[in-house]
Every structure is written in C-alpha cells, then in structure tokens.
C-alpha cells in the first residue's frame, strides 16, 4: 500500500485549466482516468486526509504510485479524451458499462462498393450503418426476409458474390427475386447503392414515403389493367406492414429518442435503454455495472452517455458527416437524472449528430410512462443479475481464498497465468500462456509462444521448453517494467502531451500473482530455475499434475493435496485445461503451416500475394521454373531484383536443370509440378519461431 504523499505533485505544478488525468500503479498500469474543469482543484481533492475519502477512493490512491495529466482546450475535449482513454486502458477503478449480453444488429455495409445487409455483433465498423440492437438474431432475419421483397439488396458473403461473378449465374436469392443480383449486372452498382439507401431510410423510420409510393404504383397498375403487377405491389405493401408491426408505436408524434433508466444500490447499478425511432421501439439494450468508484447518479449517467454514444464517433472513424449519417445519436435523450456536466455533454452530442440534441428528464405524458416501463426492465435485469451472479461470485472468492491458504500466499492470487507445452514427437513445439483475473478468463491477455531451443530446432524436452518460455515471458516483463519506470520518471507528477505513446500497450509489463505450469516436479523445477535465474522472487509458482491432480510447489518433496470437491482445485483445473486447449490449438496451427511448403518460401521478399500471382500467371511451378527473370519480372507486383531471386531459388548452384527433363512428358500425363502446386496454391509465410504469434481474438505479442 503506497502513501499518496510520496507521489503528490506540488500544487503550483498543476494547472488550473481543463484536462484529463491518469493514476498509475507501481507497474505503470493505468488504474484510473478522470477529467476536470480545474485540474488543480480536482487533483488536490485526492491528496487530503485518507479518512475523509470514500473507501473506494482510498483504495485507488493507495494502489497508485504516480499521477499525470494532459491539458486540453475545452471541457468538451476533456470529455472525449476521457472516453478514449477509458476505452484504451480499461482502468480497474473506473466504472465501465458492459452489455449483459452480445446484442445483434442489422448492419448495412455502405462502405463497400456493393453494400450488403447482414446480422452483425461486436464492435462497430467504419462505413457501416447499424439498426437495432435486436433482442434476437432471428428477429433480424425475419424482418430482413420481409423487406427483401421491396428492397432486394445483396445479403450474400464475399465468397458467394465472387463465385456468382465468375460463373455468371446468381445465387438462389437472385432467382427468387430477393436479390437484385448486382453480381451478374442485372442492376448497376449505382442503382444497387440507391436501393440500399432506400432500405436504410426505411429502417431509420422514414416509412411513410415508401408506403405512399407503393400504393400509388399499385393504383396506377390497376388502372392500366396490369393486375399481376398490382398484386405483387399489394404483397409488397403487406410485407412492409408486417415488418412495421413488429415494432409497436409507443410515441405518436414520430419522436426519435433514446430513453434511459437507472436503478441500483451502493455496489451495483443496472441500466436499460429503449431506442425509439419514428415513434417505434427499434432496439433495447441493458448493462449491469459494479460501482468501483464513488459516483453520484448524475455522474453515472454522464459516464453512461459517454460510452453509449462514443461508439457513434468510432463507427464513423472520426468522420463527422459519417457520424451524423449513422443515426446512432437521436434528437432527444431522456434520462432519469441530468448528467453532471449537462452543457458540455449537450455540446458533444450535438457535434456528433450535427444538429441540436436535447438531454432532459421526462416529466409527463407518454414519454414519462415509457420511461417508467424502461425502469421496470432495469429493475428486473438487476434482480436477474444478482440471482445468477451470487453463486458465481461466492464460488470464485472461495476458490481464490482456498488457493491462497493451500499455497501459503500473502494475498489472494487475483491474476493467475498458466503455461503448457504442446508438441508431436518434438516437432512443431508450441507453448501457451492463459490468464485468469479474479477467477475469470481474460482472453485478450492470452499468448502463444513458438519454442525455438538453443539451435533453432526446438527444445530437447518439455522441461527445456518450459524453461525457455518462462524465461522469455519474464525477461520481457523485466525489460518493459524498466521502460515503464523510465517513462514514469519523466512524467512523474507532471504534465504529459495528449499524443504521448500509450505505455500500457506493453504486453508483459504486468506480472501475475501466481504462475501455474501444466505438469509435475520436473516442469515446476524448470519454471522455478527460470524465475531464479532472472532474479524474480515475488511471483508464486506451482504445478498441477494431471494423473492425481496434485499441486506441486518448488522445493517440496510432497505435493499439496486439495480436496476433490474444493473450489480452489476446480479453478486450477479450469486454468490448466484452458492452457492445454490453447496450446493444442497453437500446435495444430503451426503443424498445419509446416505441411504446406513450397520452394518459393525461401525467396526473400516473396509473400503470399506475390506467390499467388506467380502461380496464377504461369499455371504451375514447372512452368515458373522454366521462365526467365525477365518473364517473371512482367508479373504484376514483381520487380527485377525479386525475379532474379526467384530464379536463383528455383535453380540452385550445382542442381540439375529442371527445365530439360530426361524423359519426355507423355501427352495428357499429370504435371508433377502442377500437382505440387496444389499444396502451395494458398501459400503461407512461416513466422519466426521466436515470435509469440498472434491468435484471433487476442492482442499481438512478441517474445
């Protein structure tokens, strides 16, 4: 526990202008981000008598070891910078609203040359229009199926679209008139984009003009005695009406508004929001948050609006016009309590929308009644969350306490890292590192290692591989801790520029409380030797053997035995099994890459795209081998120097010339080189085994 007086800046050093500040712990990790209209007044409030601070604030300032700040021009800029830093650093003492589930959206990829409508989850992408969120993905598909009668826009994947282009035949949706088939040029790209614009306008709530247009066309067709067309238009109108019926009218004046409700206690809060567009509920979302910082309801609402509408700016990639077109910021924002800094929040949201945004508390009428309905949903969500979480939170706390007692640790192991080695007869060796924080998997921190060994051909056995992996991970930790310390010395208690590189992107600068290795005494001894050789003595270590689920501690003759039914053993097993799964996945990926090799892999500067271009141009490796450097240089993307390198690789000194075979090739005989090309038709460059490879869903790393 640190004394805040040890890092308190002198009052005269702190400016009185608006800005954003960051508290860091002794590992350089940002643990809290805040904004202030007056930095000096705000920061001074943290360094008063500890007894006068809220318990959560006490914990934060005693966990921190330094503070730094960035001066900005206005309070609105401070609001935006605070949001971006909270998203970037994920500070442990900031309130963060996380969805209670992953909500699907109906997305239209307007950034593509041929827009596509699809169900999409996760983070927002630049150039894509989003509608929703919806409670269920099937609700999106039903709505989309109805609307494709009137707006037959593309819904197929890139692969299906490309195959249709190559074959000259559309997919099934094109034949049943639920796609305008731009793939085979039944409709031009410009006309298809106009169709996608109409679809987006309808989904955004501008439904009246399309209904009116279809009714006019139906009447005109009936007057012209074109009854078949009139019948089709009648069915189209029915489809649109059924799609509109799925969203009941709740506000008769066609209001565009987001209605928020908040409920909770001193420890937790639940938030619900109804997205109303054109008077109809177009989506609903919910969050449950732990109050890890001392905030009033007004401050909670302010943070909520930051995180909800910050996605509008992210989805637009900083493009103001695209942010306005996204429709994510409505005309009205109805909240239970006005945000703490109402004027700054209104200015920020109005800038995102490109027009005035009203933030207010509904007082009477339909909007007040709808706000009460949203509040009931929030209360139900909080009750359900408590019911589900009570047992889980209790069990995780019990598991961490049991591990602490069994291993005689000073504190509960809040961060656990587990390592495992996967190999097949010593080949394609791969290692995994999985991370559990507070008893839950933190997949963004997962890493895989390629085991190199002393001679580059891999380690001699699992213990040598374990020694190498632990050494590399903690050598990196020491180096990045040193780098972070240097930066902290420069910014300790002082002002930093808004463009200062984010030191928190250091991937191994944060150490675990406990290291678990998959294995018994040999693997534990290897890991212990690696830590000792690096001089690290403040990280606990144990191993979990599979046979009897024994917990081995370095230097102990006998294992620690946890009861089979104990929560501590269950947690260690989950950590070990996750490391095993992740290591096997990395090993299979590495083994698969090792089975697709080509003579072109050894050519420097020749990546997958150039290899594919060469094989497409010449048709086979045999024809490529017979080509001259000048012919190879004519391929798109190839230069003279690279072409000469290809010729040198395919005709090594002293090797027989493959272009003059001893026996003539029989007509119709299969080309051996062409057969070989089937292995390398999609060549993959091999990564250096020293690299800690990036796995989908995790952050990149290098070891």
UniProtKB/TrEMBL annotation:
This protein's UniProt keywords: Cytoplasm, DNA damage, DNA excision, DNA repair, Excision nuclease, SOS response
Region entry Disordered, spans: 653-703
Residue intervals of the UvrC family homology region profile domain: 259-531
Pfam families: GIY-YIG, HHH_5, UVR, UvrC_RNaseH, UvrC_RNaseH_dom
Broad class of the protein's primary localization: cytoplasm
Intracellular or extracellular location(s): Cytoplasm
One of the protein's GO biological processes: nucleotide-excision repair
Start and end residues of each GIY-YIG domain: 16-95
Domain called UVR: residue spans: 208-243
Composition bias, Low complexity: 653-682
GO molecular function: DNA binding; excinuclease ABC activity
Chain's role: The UvrABC repair system catalyzes the recognition and processing of DNA lesions. UvrC both incises the 5' and 3' sides of the lesion. The N-terminal half is responsible for the 3' incision and the C-terminal half is responsible for the 5' incision.
Xref: NCBIfam families: PRK00558.1-5 (NF001824), uvrC (TIGR00194)
HAMAP family assigned: UvrC
Name under which the protein is recorded: UvrABC system protein C
Organism encoding this protein: Sanguibacter keddieii (strain ATCC 51767 / DSM 10542 / NCFB 3025 / ST-74)
């Amino acid at each position: 526990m640190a004394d805040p007086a040890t890092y308190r800046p002198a009052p005269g050093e702190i400016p009185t202008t608006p800005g954003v500040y960051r508290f860091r712990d002794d590992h350089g990790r940002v643990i809290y981000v805040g904004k202030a209209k007056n930095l000096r007044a705000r920061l001074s409030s943290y360094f008063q008598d500890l007894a006068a601070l809220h318990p959560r604030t006490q914990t934060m300032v005693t966990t921190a070891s330094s503070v730094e700040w960035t001066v900005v021009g206005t309070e609105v800029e401070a609001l935006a910078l605070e949001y971006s830093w909270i998203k970037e650093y994920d500070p442990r003492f900031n309130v963060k609203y996380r969805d209670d589930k992953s909500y699907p959206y109906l997305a239209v990829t307007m950034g593509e040359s041929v827009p596509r409508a699809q169900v999409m989850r996760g983070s927002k992408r630049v150039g894509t229009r989003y509608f929703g969120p919806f409670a269920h993905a099937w609700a999106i598909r039903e709505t989309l199926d109805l609307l494709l009668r009137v707006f037959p826009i593309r819904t197929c994947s890139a692969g299906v679209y490309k195959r249709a282009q190559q074959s000259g035949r559309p997919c099934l949706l094109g034949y049943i008139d639920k796609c305008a088939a731009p793939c085979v040029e039944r409709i031009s790209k410009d006309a298809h984009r106009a169709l996608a614009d109409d679809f987006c306008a309808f989904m955004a709530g501008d439904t009246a003009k399309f209904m009116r247009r279809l009714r006019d066309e139906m009447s005109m067709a009936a007057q012209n005695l074109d009854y078949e067309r009139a019948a089709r238009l009648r069915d189209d109108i029915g489809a649109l009406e059924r799609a509109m019926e799925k969203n009941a009218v709740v506000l008769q004046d066609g209001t565009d508004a987001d209605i928020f409700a908040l409920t909770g206690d001193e420890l937790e809060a639940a938030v619900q929001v109804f997205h109303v567009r054109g008077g109809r509920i177009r989506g609903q979302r919910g969050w449950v948050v732990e109050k890890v910082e001392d905030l009033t309801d007004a401050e909670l609402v302010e943070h909520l609006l930051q995180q909800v509408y910050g996605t509008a700016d992210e989805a637009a990639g900083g493009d103001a016009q695209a942010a306005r077109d996204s429709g994510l910021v409505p005309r009205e924002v109805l909240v239970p309590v006005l945000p703490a800094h109402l004027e700054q929040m209104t200015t920020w949201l109005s800038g995102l929308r490109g027009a005035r945004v009203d933030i207010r508390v509904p007082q009477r009428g339909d909007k007040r009644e709808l706000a009460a309905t949203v509040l009931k949903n929030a209360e139900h969500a909080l009750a359900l969350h408590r019911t589900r979480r009570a047992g889980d939170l209790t069990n995780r706390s019990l598991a961490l306490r049991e591990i602490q007692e069994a291993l005689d640790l000073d504190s509960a192991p809040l961060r656990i890292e587990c390592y495992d080695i996967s190999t097949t007869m010593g080949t394609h060796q791969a290692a995994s590192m999985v991370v559990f924080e507070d008893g839950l998997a933190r997949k963004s921190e997962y890493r895989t290692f390629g085991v190199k060994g002393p001679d580059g051909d891999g380690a001699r056995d699992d213990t040598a591989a374990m020694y190498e992996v632990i050494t590399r991970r903690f050598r990196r930790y020491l180096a990045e801790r040193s780098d972070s310390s240097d930066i902290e010395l420069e910014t300790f208690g002082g002002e930093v520029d808004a463009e200062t590189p984010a030191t928190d992107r250091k991937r191994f600068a944060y150490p675990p409380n406990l290291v678990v290795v998959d294995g018994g005494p040999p693997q534990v001894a290897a890991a212990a030797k690696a830590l000792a050789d690096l001089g690290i003595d403040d990280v606990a270590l144990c191993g979990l053997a599979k046979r009897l689920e024994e917990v081995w501690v370095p230097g102990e003759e006998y294992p620690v035995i946890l009861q089979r039914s104990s929560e501590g053993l269950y947690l260690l097993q989950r950590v070990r099994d996750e490391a095993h799964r992740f290591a096997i996945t990395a090993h299979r990926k590495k083994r698969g890459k090792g089975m697709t090799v080509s003579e072109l892999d050894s050519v420097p500067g020749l990546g997958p795209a150039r290899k594919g271009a060469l094989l497409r141009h010449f048709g086979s490796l045999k024809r490529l081998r017979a080509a001259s450097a000048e012919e190879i240089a004519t391929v798109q993307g190839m230069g003279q120097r690279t072409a000469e390198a290809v010729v040198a690789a395919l005709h090594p000194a002293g090797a027989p010339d493959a272009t003059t075979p001893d026996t003539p090739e029989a007509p119709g005989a299969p080309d051996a080189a062409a057969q070989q090309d089937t292995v390398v038709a999609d060549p993959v460059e091999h990564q250096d085994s020293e690299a800690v490879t990036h796995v989908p869903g995790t952050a990149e790393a290098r070891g």
